């Protein structure tokens, strides 16, 4: 249950599958280097949160602290010492890929640490904090009903 098998040359994996395999191998390497080393089976939501915090050091998204004068400004006018972190969207996508990889590698859905409540709450908090720090809201976009213009012969007549 440690690595994702690679496919043959005739069946080239998709970009998503390649990324999922790389993410899974990175997580397994993180567990191997953990003190004490952990197996995937012994991993919990708390270990997933440690991994996400560890990844923050490689982030490229400026997240202003509440004491920063640019907190809440989408386009700050000058540099500041606030840390770079992983963007919420990147973390959310990563957790989705790792959640799928866990089950593909023999893990049971009910014991999946990537679906733990603590992980979901953490992602929610990161999303909200990053939105406030940048002055951007993550409102869910409403889906507009599709209008079939070709099916309506009077579409151009009613539009004018």
Automatic annotation (TrEMBL):
Stretches assigned to the ALOG domain = 15-142
| Disordered, as annotated region | 136-160
Print the keywords alphabetically.
Developmental protein, DNA-binding, Nucleus, Transcription, Transcription regulation
Q: Provide the Gene Ontology terms for cellular component.
A: nucleus
**Biological process (GO) annotations?**
mRNA transcription; response to light stimulus
| GO MF, any single term | DNA binding
Task: Please give the InterPro entries that the UniProt record associates with this protein.
Answer: ALOG, ALOG_dom
Q: Where in the cell is it found?
A: Nucleus
Where is there biased composition of kind Polar residues? 149-160
Supply the Pfam families for this chain: ALOG_dom
Give the similarity note. Answer: Belongs to the plant homeotic and developmental regulators ALOG protein family.
Q: What is this protein called?
A: ALOG domain-containing protein
Q: Which organism is it from?
A: Cajanus cajan (Pigeon pea)
Taxonomic classification, please?
A: Eukaryota, Viridiplantae, Streptophyta, Embryophyta, Tracheophyta
């Amino acid at each position: 249950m440690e690595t994702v098998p690679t496919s043959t040359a005739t069946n080239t994996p998709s970009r998503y599958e390649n990324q999922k395999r790389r993410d899974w191998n990175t997580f397994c390497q993180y567990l191997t280097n953990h003190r004490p080393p952990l197996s995937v089976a012994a991993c919990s939501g708390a270990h997933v949160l440690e991994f996400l915090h560890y990844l923050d050091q490689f982030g490229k998204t400026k997240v202003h602290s509440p004491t920063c004068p640019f907190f809440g400004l989408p386009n700050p006018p000058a540099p500041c010492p606030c840390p770079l972190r992983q963007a919420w969207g990147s973390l959310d996508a990563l957790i989705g890929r790792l959640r799928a990889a866990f089950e593909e590698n023999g893990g049971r859905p009910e014991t999946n640490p990537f679906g733990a409540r603590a992980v979901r709450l953490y992602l929610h908090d990161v999303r909200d904090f990053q939105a406030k720090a940048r002055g951007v809201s993550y409102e869910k976009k409403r889906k507009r009903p599709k209008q079939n213009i070709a099916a309506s012969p009077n579409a151009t007549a009613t539009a004018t």
